[in-house]
């Protein structure tokens, strides 16, 4: 099992969460909530209002999201869903545990107790330069105050 940190449309209550609970695509077990140890710019960009975490450590906010334990099948699905490696790149990032529900091996429990663990995160190093000038968010909600509702793939 791999650990994945999701900060956008795959979180609970967001437009693509249905994929995280679709066992035909693999297994994803909610472990807890967290936030990036380093600051990153989280922007909403493009004509479909997609959330992107720009891989610019030290800029922006500590981005909030959810930690999942996923099997190889779900990880492969997520790679395809996220357009990895072209649109997003899957990299390991340090995530601070804010709230932990997960049950696992002693190493996992110890990492959660210490408050920081490494998780795969889909961020991007390939983006138009003007995205750096967009507003930065610390948390994503498709129906947030920003008024930039995400456009589902089925509706594009």
Automatic annotation (TrEMBL):
It catalyses: epsilon-(gamma-L-glutamyl)-L-lysine = 5-oxo-L-proline + L-lysine. Keywords: Lyase, Transferase. InterPro entries: AIG2-like_dom, GGACT, GGCT-like, GGCT-like_sf. CDD domains: GGCT_like (cd06661). Its EC number is 4.3.2.8. It is an enzyme of class 4 (lyase). Residues 4-122 form the Gamma-glutamylcyclotransferase AIG2-like domain. Belongs to the gamma-glutamylcyclotransferase family. This is Gamma-glutamylaminecyclotransferase. It comes from Buceros rhinoceros silvestris. The lineage of its organism: Eukaryota, Metazoa, Chordata, Craniata, Vertebrata.
